[in-house]
């Protein structure tokens, strides 16, 4: 009876351990809630159906992000890693299996063999079970935060790739129109040269300009192809799937940008990688706290034995076994725990510094690209257009030649190209800023940034009654 009472407490703990279960859905539901709070929602329909539906129509940014969240293999691997962390939580809530021992000793002339039956549990695990569970819970929280941070990082990458695609498509249109204008200029130069009104050097310069513009158009085509390939890879789409087209042009500048102090406050509350570092530090601190007592106690086994002696008499009682710290005093484990603590503290400090640095860097890029885009939009492009219109009037009165007019149109194209590149850089800076803040930013107006200028007519002098030598 005494042995039964002795094992009552360990037995109760064993029963509680047996009730431990795996975290529901490996923590994905809780992670999805964290992401929704940060402006990132996952599709609620099956992956195959959503992918097929999304590719039937021109692709907007939100659907592109949803496709990436569902199909990107690297992110799916990160989600699968939640299973490892969930398994650690499950195992931390359970004890090692009890040890059952059986001994049979026979002696000559005895009627019965001596039989001993024993059971023992690792009592050291019982002592530190709650701490091990807290460690596993903290590591699970760190893993969930790390996976959530990867999802937000992927969303920022998709947004940047989408903006690059939109900008590359508009730049290609612009470069093709510029190449058309340069070809008109080169063809006109050839006519003037054949009429004896243009020097060979001037003809060569016009032809070189046409070839240069064609090369720029070829480069723009390549950049669009590369941008599309990058976006398609992020979305996890194969080449054999339905071709897709962008639904949104490169967006215009929003009326204003968010205040830096507000973004800083959001970053402190939203950065999941920062929360992962904090949770990891909590786990390491708990592990460090039990390193010394665990090394001093070692492995302590408690149990009970029941013995039937040679004469048939029965004996029962408690047992205990403890490891003696003679050879392994646990010094290495304590040193390892201390090193892990210092490493986790340094990692958290680095994460905090990264938040500050990334936020200030992204915000500086945002402000600089906005300033450049506004200067293009409000100053350079209007000035180029006014110059072209004035030169066009002079050309109509045959006060200047066609080459001056075509050169002015090419300068207008260059101004528009610079504006598109500045807008692209602004949108990329916004994606970097969202990454630095740790949440999605409000989306800008998807309306086109500006109407692209038309290419020059095939013969800018056709409406004149006679040629005017430039």
Automatic annotation (TrEMBL):
Residues 1-20 form the signal peptide. The keyword Secreted does not apply. One of its GO terms (molecular function) is efflux transmembrane transporter activity. It comes from the Bacteria. Residues 260-287, 334-379 form a coiled coil. Residues 444-470 are annotated as: Disordered. Keywords: Coiled coil, Signal. Residues 446-457 have a biased composition (Low complexity). InterPro entries: MdtP/NodT-like, OMP_efflux. Belongs to the outer membrane factor (OMF) (TC 1.B.17) family. This is Outer membrane protein, cobalt-zinc-cadmium efflux system. The lineage of its organism: Bacteria, Pseudomonadati, Pseudomonadota, Gammaproteobacteria, Nevskiales.
């Amino acid at each position: 009876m005494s042995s039964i009472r002795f094992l009552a407490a360990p037995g109760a703990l064993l029963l509680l351990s047996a009730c431990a279960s795996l975290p529901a859905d490996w923590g994905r539901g809780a992670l999805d809630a964290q992401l929704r709070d940060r402006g990132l929602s996952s599709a609620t329909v099956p992956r195959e159906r959503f992918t097929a539906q999304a590719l039937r129509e021109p692709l907007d940014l939100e659907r592109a992000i949803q496709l990436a969240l569902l199909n990107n293999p690297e992110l799916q691997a990160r989600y699968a890693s939640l299973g490892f962390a969930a398994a650690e939580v499950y195992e931390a809530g359970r004890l090692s299996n009890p040890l059952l021992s059986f001994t049979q000793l026979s002696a000559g002339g005895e009627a019965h063999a001596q039989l001993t039956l024993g059971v023992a549990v690792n009592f050291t695990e019982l002592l530190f079970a709650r701490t091990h569970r807290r460690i596993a819970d903290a590591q699970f929280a760190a893993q969930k935060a790390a996976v959530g941070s990867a999802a937000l990082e992927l969303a920022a990458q998709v947004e940047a790739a989408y903006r690059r695609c939109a900008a590359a498509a508009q730049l290609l249109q612009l470069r093709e129109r510029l190449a058309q204008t340069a070809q008109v200029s080169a063809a006109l130069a050839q006519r003037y040269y054949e009429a004896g009104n243009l020097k060979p050097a001037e003809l060569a310069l016009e032809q070189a300009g046409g070839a240069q513009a064609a090369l720029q158009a070829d480069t723009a085509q390549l950049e669009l192809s590369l941008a599309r390939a990058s976006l398609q890879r992020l979305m996890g789409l194969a080449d054999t799937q339905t071709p897709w087209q962008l639904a949104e042009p490169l967006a215009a500048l929003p009326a204003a940008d968010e205040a830096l102090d507000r973004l800083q406050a959001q970053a402190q509350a939203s950065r999941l990688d920062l929360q992962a570092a904090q949770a990891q530090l909590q786990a390491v601190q708990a592990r460090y706290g039990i390193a010394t007592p665990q090394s001093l106690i070692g492995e302590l086994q408690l149990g009970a034995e029941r013995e039937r002696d040679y004469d048939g008499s029965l004996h029962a009682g408690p047992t205990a076994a403890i490891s003696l710290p003679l050879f392994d005093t646990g010094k290495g484990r304590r040193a390892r725990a201390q090193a892990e603590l210092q490493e986790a503290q340094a990692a958290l400090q680095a994460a905090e510094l990264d938040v500050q640095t990334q936020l200030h860097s992204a915000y500086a890029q945002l402000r600089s690209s906005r300033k450049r885009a506004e200067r293009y939009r409000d100053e350079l492009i209007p000035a180029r257009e006014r110059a072209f219109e004035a030169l066009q009037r002079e050309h109509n009165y045959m006060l200047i030649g066609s080459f001056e007019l075509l050169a002015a149109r090419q300068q207008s194209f260059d101004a528009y190209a610079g504006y598109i590149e500045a807008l692209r850089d602004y949108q990329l800076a916004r994606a970097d800023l969202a990454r630095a803040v740790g949440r999605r930013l409000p989306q800008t107006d998807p309306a086109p940034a500006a109407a692209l200028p038309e290419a020059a007519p095939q013969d800018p002098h056709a409406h004149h009654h006679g040629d005017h030598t430039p």
